[in-house]
Write a structure and sequence with these properties.
heterodimer; A: alpha/beta; four-stranded antiparallel sheet; 9 helices; B: Immunoglobulin-like; MetI-like fold; three-stranded antiparallel sheet; 9 strands; 69% helix; binds adenosine-5'-diphosphate; binds magnesium ion
Chain lengths: 249, 626
Amino acid sequence: MLEVRELTKIYEGGVLALDRVSFEVPKGQFLAVIGLSGSGKSTLLRCINRLVDPTSGKIIWDGYDITAASQDEMRHVRRKIGMVFQHFNLVARSSVLTNVLAGRLGYVNPFWSLINRFSRADVEKALGELERVGIRDKAMVRADELSGGQQQRVGIARAMMQEPQMILADEPVASLDPVLAHSIMQYLEQVNKEGVTVLCSLHFLDLVHRYANRVIALNQGKLVFDGLPTEIDDEKFKEIYGREAERVG
Amino acid sequence: MKSLKKSMDGKPSGLGKIAMFVRNSRQMLKSIGLGAAIFAGLVIYAYGFQVTKVNLQETKSERRQTQLVRILRALAKPDLLTYQYKEFEVNAPIMVPCPPEGYTSPAVDTSQPYMLITPPCAAPGDMVVVEGFHFQPNQSGPLSFIPPSGVKLNLGTIQTDEDGRFRLEVKLPKREANEVNYIRGVTRQRVGMPQLSQTARDTWDKIVETVFLALLATTIGTLIAIPLSFFAAQNLMKDITSPLTSVALNILALPLGFYLGGKLAAWVAALMRPALQMPLVMLAGIGVGVAVMVGGIRWALPQQEESVKPSLFVLVLRGAAIAAALLAGIFSLFLLSSLAMVVGDKLAKALGAFGFLGLFIADLGEILNMALVALVSLAGAGVFAAYAGQLGNRIARQTTPLLAKPLSVLLSALAGAVLLVLTLQAIDWFYQIGDPRITLWAPAVIGGAAGLLLAFLCRPNQELPVGMVIYFIARTIFNALRSIESLVMVIVFAVWVGIGPFAGVLALSLHTIAALAKLYSEQVESILPGPVEAVKATGANRLQTIVYAVIPQIIPPYISFTMYRWDINVRMSTIIGFAGGGGIGFLLQQNINLLNYRAASAQMLAIAIVVASMDYLSAKMRERTI
Ligand SMILES: Nc1ncnc2c1ncn2[C@@H]1O[C@H](COP(=O)(O)OP(=O)(O)O)[C@@H](O)[C@H]1O
Ligand SMILES: [Mg+2]
């Protein structure tokens, strides 16, 4: 159970990116976060694993106050939260396997990882995750030699290495073409079915309808919708995306 | 109607006039400004000519021009090749004074080189003409007068033309004899193939020295600059924060750890002394040390986090094991360095021509030995600081404000006092103030007060931007060091370690550290933030994030900047000898001072070749890394 209470983020320049946002996510839900670009979706997801420090408000996860955790304590929180990025954020010059193994860094002993030693079990696990996303044969290839869709699969494998209880996916398919988008979303769906809570920001409503259990919508940092995907009618749509927006999906 | 019309076309014209006036005056102002700027420029350059003593008269004067021609001609003929010469001597008889019966010189073999003297006899001090035939063309050599006693009296220098002839009018010495005197002409003839001259060989030696000087300086500079560059990278430092208590404890622990580390190193060195003459014992010691270290670390640091928290007893045991492993590591390194010194010395004697390899090993051992003390001190400081930081964090976060506040006040005051006293002690070392009121009591009170004030202003668990403070300090130091040219630094080092290439290595290294740390840190700042965030989001700690997300990104630019720096260092090392830093510059300067321009020319040529090929090489290698 993730509780977000009155979450506010004001960036240094004075931009109000989140404005007293409150919602709850029960364990195992697939929650879509929608909104125009600049509405605060990334900021919201990044506040949850504290890549961005919120200005005020609380985030409580299974009773633990994430917003009050120190940097050391965050290490333990973060390793249970996988993150998938729009631009994949792989380390381009490292091998696919190393990129995936990086997902274990929160668990392994720092000393051994600094000299690039992972246990046999971890390597096996990494290869298993690559198998699951169908690119085991690319394990030794440099990450930047993969196509976009393959890179995002590596991103998912890296997140899964963390044995996460929650995955934050920030527009995971926005840089991919629609066919690939579905295959990536299906991996997320599968992970969700295994019991992992997924918070996924999305651009296209058809993807929301297809994959999400529930939607929240942001507009200029404010929560303007919280409900089922099917509840987004034309009126709600205009509220979320603005009056001029045309519904295409 | 009329008047209206008048006023109507009068108005615009009036406005037009004003507009034109405004435009004109603006234009005029512009022109005046331009004129003033040109005038100011003229003044600046005129002054520049004056202070740099531009003197065109001097460049035109005859004396200067002949000098210039001489130098340029010498420079055009670098002293690179020499020949073996065979000396050729030809003797021609002459009577001084003429005997009463007169004198005719005997007939000469005109198929061989020969000389004719006219007249064949003359009074002392008279002028005679000496002509030579069939000599080596275009040669020169001495012409001397040989009286019967056999001494050599110099008459002049002969210079043969392309037909091998010469003609010289010489004045006979004021000596008389009843017997025949001789005039001897000597020319030299090249035999065999050209060989490298002594200058060329010296130049080669020095150019090798130069290139290696640059290589060493670049290596040392790079090794030290890489870790330091992270401290000067804003994106890595900006989110390092810690509460005041932690900072204060750090300030207190760092010097203590440094001091104790140094003591530990000295203790280990003293303990090792008896073993130093027994290489086999040392070898065995290294083996045992490494085994203990690896075993200890393996046992004490499980690869995976355990599901059950280990008991306190196990934790203490593990701590002890890690301490033992560290100690074993230090011991092994000390033994290794001593062993290298002993073995290197033996090898140097045994290897003969390759003795430098032995010396190299011995030197490496000595460097390791010297570096170890510093390393152990630094490690001590690091360990202490790490624990102090953790302790500080705990105090700041997990104790009640009732306890946290007074602790933070106390520690902060103490740290402020210590920091300022240490600073003043350092200043005292330079300026020898020698007054404890200034170097001890005043800074203790002022520092303490500043610490107090800071502690009252901060909440106990407020995060202070320590990273940015370190960042600014590192930046400032690098910028200051970088602005001191290595040519200036080498003067200080030459005083310390003596004139020679080692002083050059040290000066260039120091400059390289500052310059590269700056360049490297800019590369760190321009890496993609995405992968760093992604790795951080997995729960990696700061060091892991650097190793897994930062370092892979900076390897290509680091290599490329290192190559670039080597290129610069080669250039610098060619002239660092001018200031006492060894290398080819030293030779060049000597030859210029001795007016030996042909030798200097050889060295300039060598410099040009080395710099050009280094330039090419580094460009090629940089291309490959990108
Ligand atoms: N690091 C930052 N500094 C300042 N403003 C930011 C920063 N990141 C995002 N913003 C601003 O915050 C607002 C929300 O951005 P973001 O969360 O990225 O929106 P979304 O992901 O929905 O496109 C935008 O106006 C954006 O310009
Ligand atoms: Mg976004």
